[in-house]
Amino acid sequence: MEVKTSLLDNMIGVGDMVLLEPLTEDSFLENLKKRFDHNEIYTYIGSVVISLNPYRSLPIYTPDKVEEYRNRNFYELSPHIYALADEAYRSLRDQDKDQCILITGESGAGKTEASKLVMSYVAAVCGKGQEVNKVKEQLLQSNPVLEAFGNAKTVRNDNSSRFGKYMDIEFDFKGDPLGGVISNYLLEKSRVVKQPRGERNFHIFYQLLSGAPDDTLKKLKLERDFSKYNYLSLDSATVSGLDDAANFRTVRNAMQIVGFMEDEMQSVLELVAAVLKLGNIEFKPESRCNGMDESRIKDKNDLKEMCELLGTEQSVLERAFSYRTVEAKMEKVSTTLNVAQAYYARDALAKNLYSRLFSWLVTRINESIKAQAKTRHKVMGVLDIYGFEIFEDNSFEQFIINYCNEKLQQIFIELTLREEQEEYIREGIEWTNIEYFNNAVICDLIENNQNGILAMLDEECLRPGTVTDETFLDKLNTICADHQHFESRLSKNSKFLNDHSLPHNCFRIQHYAGKVLYRVEGFVDKNNDLLYRDLSQAMYKANHSLIKQLFPEGNPAKVNLKRPPTAGFQFKASVGTLMSNLQSKNPNYIRCIKPNDKKASHVFNGSLVCHQARYLGLMENVRVRRAGYAFRQAYEPCLERYKMLCKNTWPHWKGRARQGVEVLMTDLQVPAEEFSYCRSKIFIRNPRTLFFLEEKRKQCLEDLATLIQKIYKGWKCRSHFLLLKKSQVVVASWYRRYAQQKKYQKIKHATTMVQSYTRGWQARKLLRELKYQKKCEEAVTTIAAFWHGTQVRREYRKFFRANAGKKIYNFTIQRIMQKYFLGLKSKLPSMSPIDKTWPARPYSFLDGVHAELRRIFHLWRCKKYRSRFTEEKKAVYEEKLEASELFKDKKALYPSSVRQPFKGDYLEISKNPKYQKLSSAVDEKILLADVVNKINRANGKGSSRLFLLTKKNVVLADQKTGQLKANVPLTDLASVSTSTQTDGFFALKLKEGSASAVKGDFLLSSDHLIEIITKLHRIGSMAADREKLNIDISDEFLVQFKQDKVCVKFIQGSPKNGNSVSCKRKNNRLLEVSVPASS
């Protein structure tokens, strides 16, 4: 059985303030302090959760805690924010009710952390799956991105939200998240250009400078030193407990998870860097000849770098900082800006640039996390908005923030009372209205369309003439002087004339959270929120991918002369939409309280907590909850909790739960006026009644515990006795069995011994008889064999003696040959024709056979080797064989040509476009094409020629031009002469009287001499109508040059001549060829 705990079990103080007795402000604070000191930071007021900021990490948000609160009733466990999140999620999933979670409190009370805890819990308990997990991760990772760009360190909070955020998380019918939509409200953009003392700018500026890699900073033209930038305050640049470098990496990773592309992230960082550069632009005054003051930029380097980041022209932006163009109907008037106006324009551009970038980020995140399905969604809204703010210097931003908190307080009061009233009506209980402070009068003072402060501020901003903050204050003093929540020194109300705590340029509003003094300076400018059209148009002209989207009004083609709505008007409309959205959902409240102003753990400032409890209306909330009935519970859990108090309901009640509760309350004699039976719940009027039931239950549990102990001890003793008895019976039975087994084994052993001796005696007797019978049979067989042998030898002795020698010889020879062939089979050499190994012969009389077998085997493997040749390869080997017959042991050049394949066409005549004309002139197939040197008789030098060989002709052509020089038919060739040396000289001798012999023989030199002569000889051998070509190999031969015969003589060259062959003319009858000595 599962053990369940309740908030009433092991309570520290009172977990639900409704049960506090007696209910006073002191007891309320004392209960909060007692629980806070024991790390119990959550307390209930009915269904409202009070959360105190511990300013440290507590081990109460683990995955085990999530599982502990999952699918549990709200009051079943001790107070926790997870209980409220689970109740809201299960109401949305199971009852199909849209939910909203309203998190309110002062700045620094822990609202942002509370919203994160709610979202993380919902993400942990909803469904699983790849797509669902992706949606959950994107929803959770949107927080670090928005915190980096929208949060900042203030005097009250190191991670203060400087914007309002409302996220609608959308679920399907199963309760799995589909996506979400984020709405942002009033980013405090004035913080971009100026921060109060002790505070700093938005986190992203410090994270970028601390955590970005050096190459990224170099691209953004930034340095890590914070002091280089005017927009960054230095007194709080570093915050204890915040690692800006690590947070920057977290933000980059979160943007990737949400779905930002790499170029989008780079564009965002470029705009952040541009804002920093914008703050460094400074102006100096300059007078014109007409007496008008104008401004000029002091140092243009920061302007240049900013323009490079934004992709805009420097001259365009520089002019926008110096001039302002005003358009009215068809007229344009351009005026110069003085230094103050230039600084205003610079700061306005910085604020607008950052504010619009933040709005674009929210829109871009919404595109990634929005639900894709078109079906109806269940929605859970989480509101994390800035808390009520009271600073030393309160301006327009604080006024707007506190107005929003007034609206939230109003909706809290209305929805709380309405929910209470609806439950009483639903359960059939009469309801009496409870008096409470309604702050609607304060909301009306601010938002009334005619006489409200926002309406008068808009009217002042839009009216013609001179408009200043003082004229706005004068209007307030005139119209709001009689309002009970408005105070001003200059109003008609005389009681404030001598109030020195109220300066002349300020007004004071008595909010629900206390009086707040507002300095009127800057109200008009901040409400106007003007950005000069020149700057908008300069931004629109930028080549940056993001800037055009942020400044669409800068498009010259879409100039709108209509004045844009004021900041106050826009915020009022946004708050109205938000209130309508919240009222359409079932509310769940988390009231955040900060225990001290020092952001220190374990410090509880009673007066500060008391002030927050008062203006949050917590005491009124408890009184409203207790006005009717302090405690209510469904019949089933009530009967389950208290059924042990009555014998009729214990241990099991078989009837309806309500009947069981009625029997229980009657048996306990609880007065009828202390409780009421309703449709589905029992309502208990006084906490004392509940405490009486709890005390009775505690006593009964102690009695039951004693009874359970008694029964358990009796059961344990009986079980032990029965176990001993059973053990004794088992031991006795085992011993008797063991004794009988031992006795049986002894008898069995004795019987086995007698049997074995008897069988042994019988076996030995039989063995002796068998041995005797076997000996007799063997004797008879031996005698018969000897007798038969004697008879056979007598009969065949004469034949054996005549033929024994010849048979033994034949048998011996046969065995020797058999052994020889088997041995030869196992020792055969490889199938390579060049393998000359052969097994040694075993006997000398096998010499002839051994040699013949070697010859046959060699011929056979040669045949096998040749059978694998293709026709082309066979032709190559035949040429190689013919070359061997011609030159082997005759010419020293031959060995080096053996390994070189005969390629034939070395020039690829048919493929070379240079020789296309020559190729077309030769009709026959070209068998060999090579470059040779034709030796000149006059000086012995050579000139390059193309040598082409076909089946009928030898063709010589010019190498450069391809022009035909000679065409000699093979029938005109008489012989070919070459030397025995390693040179490549050869002479083509022509037949006397032939047509080709007019110019004489040809003396040529080639690197492929062996191949050329072999192919010439082979063509002559294959032609039937032609004589075989004569090959003359000699170191001295005659060559016919026209009319003269010249002797060509080959000699060995000396080492000083080098390794090259040289040909020199000695005289008219002698050419001497010097050939290097072969190594």
Automatic annotation (TrEMBL):
InterPro entries xrefs: IQ_motif_EF-hand-BS, Kinesin_motor_dom_sf, Myosin_head_motor_dom-like, Myosin_TH1, MYSc_Myo1, P-loop_NTPase
Location of this chain's protein in the cell: Cytoplasm, Cell cortex
Pfam families to which the protein is assigned, alphabetical: IQ, Myosin_head, Myosin_TH1
Keywords, ordered alphabetically: Actin-binding, ATP-binding, Calmodulin-binding, Isopeptide bond, Motor protein, Myosin, Nucleotide-binding, Phosphoprotein, Repeat, Ubl conjugation
Region described as Actin-binding: 575-597
UniProt domain TH1: residue ranges: 891-1077
Gene Ontology biological process terms, A to Z: actin filament organization; actin filament-based movement; endocytosis; intestinal epithelial cell development
Claim: Phosphoprotein is one of the keywords in the record: yes
Gene Ontology CC annotations of this record: brush border; cell cortex; microvillus; myosin complex; plasma membrane
Family annotation (SUPFAM superfamilies): P-loop containing nucleoside triphosphate hydrolases
Positions that bind ATP: G105, E106, S107, G108, A109, G110, K111, T112
Annotated PROSITE patterns: IQ, MYOSIN_MOTOR, TH1
GO molecular function (one): ATP binding
Domain Myosin motor, first and last residues per copy: 12-698
Entry superkingdom: Eukaryota
Function as written in the Swiss-Prot or TrEMBL entry: Motor protein that may participate in process critical to neuronal development and function such as cell migration, neurite outgrowth and vesicular transport.
Annotated family: Belongs to the TRAFAC class myosin-kinesin ATPase superfamily. Myosin family.
Protein name: Unconventional myosin-Ib
